[in-house]
Amino acid sequence: MTTKRILKSIFPAVYGLIVYATIRLLQDTETGFHFWVRPMLLTSMEIVLSIVVGYLNIYMINRVCNLNDQRQSAYKLTSSLLWREILTVALLNTITVNLFFTPLTAFTGDGLSWADLASINVVPLLYTLIYYGVIRSGRFLTAYVQHQLLVEKLTTDQLETELKFLKAQYHPHFLFNALNTIYFQMDDDVPGAKKSTELLSSLLRYQLYDQQQQVSVRQELEYLENYIQLQKIRASKKMRLTINFDEKLADQQVYPLLLLPLVENAFKYAGGKYVIDIVAKATADGILFKVYNDIPGQIKPSDNYGGIGLENLKRRLHLLYPGKHRLVAGAHENSYIAELELKF
Questions:
Q1: Degrees (nearest 5) of the Cα angle 324, 327, 332?
Q2: Last residue of a domain, one of 149, 178, 210
Q3: Which spans are transmembrane here (predicted)?
Q4: At a CB cut-off of 8 Å and minimum separation 6, what does 209 contact?
């Protein structure tokens, strides 16, 4: 038996003795009498009954609280139910005390006086209400904490479900483009088609990992390099692509697939002089990722982020980096610039 269980089992006895000692102290102070000069048998009977009443009171208080908590969570107890519970506890205490002590006091010593009756009822009731207040407060606190944990768990589960849904939406568009590229390579460039298949396999393997877990920036940038290689195969030969990844970016942790939509958007809108610049550099407390691409003069992409991929990116950033990200994107003359800053 653990120390906690031992203390819990003997507490009602201590509680009963404290109540008895308080009653005797009040009565002896008033009368000038000393209870230890009374017959030992009478004192022993009173002590034993006090211990019994202590166990009964503690049991009844916990029983009443348990019954109400089973009907309704302690966190949601209304004031009317609470007052009813307090009155029930007080009534049960009064019945128990008078059932044991009133007859004993009436048929021993000087009989039952109004002072005796007041002490027998008021002192135990006071201790009962104090104990009840402590117990109910503890139950309120426990129920509140459990409620908050449940709310957080439900919120976390909901966010994880939403994140998985958002991640899954990347696959169809990306997979369609990659398979389309491989399809056209099969006729004229079988070795190239094999290489593209290897790249696609590597990309899909990365995307199938648990995307709720963070990865190193190095892994994310390697993924982007493979993606860019696959996109270059189907891109115009006029394209001038520049990639500059800061060597300081290595083991810093970041959520995956957040940079992909910006690169994907650049290849999608590339035109004009077909210039694409992709830069990733370390900042004092995170990473700055910048993508520049020329666009056809006759096409003006919206300054607002449109398309499912970029809308998903905004939502994922809001969920994964609340207050720790900055996303700026828009058209400037014949170019489109997107900047994403993440703070670790």
A1: 160
A2: 149
A3: 7-27, 39-60, 81-101, 113-134
A4: 215, 256
> Which tokens in the block code for residue 294?
């020329």
Q: Are 123 and 240 contained in the same domain?
A: no
User: What pTM does this model have?
Assistant: 0.53
Q: What is the DSSP string of 151-215?
A: HHHHHHHHHHHHHHHHHHTHHHHHHHHHHHHHHHHHHH-HHHHHHHHHHHHHHHHHHTS-TTS-E
Q: Which residue in 314, 313, 320 sits closest to 159, CA to CA?
A: 320
* 272 neighbors 334 (Cβ within 8 angstroms): yes
Residues 36 and 113 in one domain: yes
Domains: count for the chain: 2
263-291: per-residue pLDDT in tens?
988 888 788 888 999 999 999 999 999 99
Does 9 share its domain with 42? yes
Domain-ending residue, one of 116, 149, 182: 149
Can you read off the two tokens belonging to residue 216? 């190193």
The answer to whether position 289 is within a domain reads yes
Alpha-carbon distance 204 to 171, whole Å?
9
Query: What does DSSP say about strands 275-282 and 286-294: parallel, antiparallel, or unpaired?
Result: antiparallel
Which residue range(s) make up the domain with 35?
3-149
